């Protein structure tokens, strides 16, 4: 089911008539977010950074370390403190990483998929898989399409 | 970057919209706590928060506006000769309880025995509110009353700061709908104030707490580990609870809960208790009745205040025409009469703890603020829920919210403090769920309550009928399953859905809340197997409804039935 939607998502974004400025991308952008949220725990983009890397912490980080890293990043990335033109997306991604890793159940699930991903070699080519997901595929998309 | 999307509909009531997130302003925004009964105003003075005093040296000013002369005056500048003067029919108060409410709202109905005119026709429009001026009803609105009051506050700040004041952070109750927030913004705009942030009251307290914790850590060179605080705020009109996780000057709001419940409800209960036939007596709403109800109100209020510090109180009030109340009231009686109020307080606190997924043992501090925090029963409830013997004592319960608002004012204005006292951040959460009407008459949330902001969520819907070419997106805010019990924020139509069997077109509805709490709703149609959205996504800033919106949903239903309805595609993804 999810793959049917995701198949649509990236392409619809790509063909949006006008790539709008960051603050206005939400509708299109979110399509990717949905793909992502529905599959985060199931699939992780091979070639990109993990939630751990995003927060700048080792895989064995304690709950305290995760929280501390999240706070440190929030103080830089949160739209209230970041430059007014910076989009909220970066903070939202960090928050997603934080919520996943700070919940023991979600973290365990995530760790398992991360482990499986590392076993599989990057044989899967991103664009060939319509249901690929993960933040960094989106980040690539953003860089390509938005900025 | 400046290109506008093809379809953008912004509500006309949003006078303060886009500038919200513009570049940092050099001017330090003031913090305003507009209470149902009292207001205060504060500002970051360069090294700390300073609460401003009016010419009578008051930090807390009564929230009311008197329409006696040509120019109405408010509680900031106006000296009341006596408490009773507030009850002659010419003074409007409790505007925070009335703002943004329709004449079908029970809270408005409960306001009908206030000593001015609140009339309801139950048709879903704003109530008729009026002050008695020279024996004539002079109609007004809560926005106007609030604006008059805010102008006085602004003038006070300008005199104090010797500069023009235009930016403000205001505290608001957790339970306020976005429509009510838009009314507050409207009042601010009328008063020449630009709203930098509207902060739920307990989150302002949380920010103050975060600053205090950070200073303690600095002094002790401590580890700065995370602290959870439960904040319970109860004033005259509203009751809020919040759970905040604090470390390193960052206050992360884990859960918020609020309801329209406060000292006013206890006062009404006590008045009914002391004079059971009150509603009949005062239904005529003449000058005599207003005076009587005023007398009873003042006497009861006085007694309630005293019961916070003594176990019993003597009430002696002569309402005229042989109606006399002579009674000794004790604290237990007060607690029994208001049992339901206290039960709701407990419910709210437990709900907040549950939503935050924080165990009671992990709560480090319990912070009780607001005018009702002096009531012994409220203290006991909080301590018994948290199994604690004491409450956090480093915060002045009546100044906490305004101090937090002033801190946020400085932080949001981009002010830096060399000592790191403004090295603060609040990560807010949404107090209410936001969603649309779908699956018949159900409320389908898209953004769940207590979602961290900024946030973006979406759901896929589909058509209910074969060859359905249009769909109605009706946006609500709240947490009730039945859609009408929630707050209507607005509605718009998606057109140009290609004819297809029901269930085939994918209607994508996305909601985006930015860090300054602006809500945008996007919707578009994608046909399976195609690459494009059928038409450009439609983007609508909410709320779009105005004061007469009470009948909107009903009218939409009458006109369209279920012809433009949507259903959810599958289990929601987030």
UniProtKB/TrEMBL annotation, chain A:
InterPro entries: Diphthamide-biosynth_chaperone, DnaJ_domain, J_dom_sf. CDD domains: DnaJ. It holds the Pfam family DnaJ. Residues 50-114 form the J domain. Signal peptide: none annotated. PANTHER family: DNAJ DOMAIN (PROKARYOTIC HEAT SHOCK PROTEIN)-RELATED, J DOMAIN-CONTAINING PROTEIN. This is J domain-containing protein. It comes from Cinchona calisaya.
Automatic annotation (TrEMBL), chain B:
The keyword Transport does not apply. One of its GO terms (molecular function) is ATP binding. Transmembrane segments: none annotated. SUPFAM superfamilies: Actin-like ATPase domain, Heat shock protein 70kD (HSP70), peptide-binding domain. Keywords: ATP-binding, Nucleotide-binding. Residues 1-25 are annotated as: Disordered. This is Heat shock 70 kDa protein 8. It comes from Cinchona calisaya. The lineage of its organism: Eukaryota, Viridiplantae, Streptophyta, Embryophyta, Tracheophyta.
């Amino acid at each position: 089911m999810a793959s049917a939607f995701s198949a649509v998502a990236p392409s619809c974004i790509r063909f949006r008539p006008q790539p709008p400025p960051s603050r206005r991308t939400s509708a299109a952008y979110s399509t990717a977010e949905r793909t992502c949220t529905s599959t985060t725990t199931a699939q992780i983009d091979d070639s990109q950074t993990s939630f751990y890397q995003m927060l700048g912490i080792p895989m064995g980080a304690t709950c305290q370390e995760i929280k501390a890293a999240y706070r440190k990043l929030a103080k830089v990335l949160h739209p209230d403190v970041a430059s007014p033109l910076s989009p909220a997306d970066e903070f939202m991604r960090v928050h997603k990483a934080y919520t996943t890793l700070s919940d023991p159940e979600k973290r365990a699930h995530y760790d398992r998929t991360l482990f499986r991903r590392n076993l599989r070699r990057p044989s899967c080519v991103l664009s060939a898989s319509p249901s690929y997901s993960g933040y960094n595929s989106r980040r690539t998309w953003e860089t390509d399409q938005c900025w | 970057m400046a290109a506008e999307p093809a379809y953008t509909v912004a509500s006309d009531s949003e006078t303060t919209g886009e500038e919200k997130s513009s570049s940092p302003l050099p001017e330090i925004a003031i913090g305003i706590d507009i209470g149902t009964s009292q207001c205060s105003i504060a500002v970051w003075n360069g090294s700390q928060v300073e609460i401003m005093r009016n010419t009578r040296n008051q930090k807390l000013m009564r929230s009311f506006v008197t329409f006696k002369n040509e120019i109405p005056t408010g509680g900031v500048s106006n000296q009341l000769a006596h408490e009773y003067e507030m009850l002659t029919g010419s003074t409007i108060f409790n505007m925070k309880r009335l703002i943004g409410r329709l004449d079908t709202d029970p809270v408005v109905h409960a306001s009908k025995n206030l000593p001015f005119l609140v009339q309801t026709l139950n048709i879903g429009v704003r109530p008729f509110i009026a002050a008695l001026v020279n024996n004539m009803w002079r109609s007004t609105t809560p926005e106007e009353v609030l604006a008059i009051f805010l102008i006085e506050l602004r003038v006070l700040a300008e005199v104090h700061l010797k500069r023009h004041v235009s930016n403000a952070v205001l505290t608001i109750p957790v339970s306020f709908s976005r429509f009510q927030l838009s009314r507050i913004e409207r009042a601010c705009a009328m008063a020449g104030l630009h709203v930098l942030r509207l902060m739920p009251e307990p989150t302002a307290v949380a920010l103050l707490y975060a600053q205090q914790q950070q200073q303690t850590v600095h002094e002790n060179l401590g580890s700065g580990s995370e602290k959870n605080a439960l904040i319970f705020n109860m004033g005259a009109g509203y009751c809020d609870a919040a759970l905040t996780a604090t470390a390193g000057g960052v206050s992360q709001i884990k859960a918020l809960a609020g309801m329209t419940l406060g000292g006013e409800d206890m006062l009404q209960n006590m008045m009914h208790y002391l004079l059971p036939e009150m509603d009949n007596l005062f239904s005529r709403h003449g000058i005599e009745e207003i005076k009587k109800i005023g007398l009873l109100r003042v006497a009861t209020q006085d007694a309630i205040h005293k019961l916070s510090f003594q176990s019993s109180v003597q009430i002696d009030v002569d309402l005229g025409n042989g109606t006399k109340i002579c009674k000794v009231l004790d604290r237990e009686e007060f607690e029994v009469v208001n049992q339901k109020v206290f039960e709701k307080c407990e419910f709210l606190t437990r709900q907040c703890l549950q939503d935050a997924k924080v165990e009671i043992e992990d709560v480090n501090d319990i912070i009780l603020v607001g005018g009702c925090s002096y009531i012994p029963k409220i203290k006991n409830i909080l301590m018994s829920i948290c199994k604690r013997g004491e409450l956090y004592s480093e915060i002045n319960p009546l100044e906490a919210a305004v101090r937090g608002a002033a801190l946020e004012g400085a932080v949001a204005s981009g002010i830096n403090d060399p000592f790191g006292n403004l090295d603060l951040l609040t990560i807010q959460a949404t107090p209410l769920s936001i969603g649309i009407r779908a699956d018949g008459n159900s409320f389908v949330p898209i953004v769940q309550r207590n979602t961290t902001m900024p946030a973006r969520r979406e759901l896929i819907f589909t058509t209910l009928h074969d060859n359905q070419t249009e769909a109605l997106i009706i946006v609500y805010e709240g947490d009730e399953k039945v859609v009408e019990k929630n707050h209507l924020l607005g509605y718009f139509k998606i057109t140009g859905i290609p004819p297809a069997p029901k269930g085939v077109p994918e209607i994508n509805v996305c909601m985006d809340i930015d860090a300054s709490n602006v809500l945008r709703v996007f919707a578009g149609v994608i046909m399976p197997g195609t690459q494009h959205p059928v038409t450009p996504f439609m983007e609508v800033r909410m709320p779009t409804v105005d004061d007469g919106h009470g009948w909107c949903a009903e009218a939409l239903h009458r006109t369209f039935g279920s012809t433009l309805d949507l259903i959810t595609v599958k289990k929601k993804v987030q």
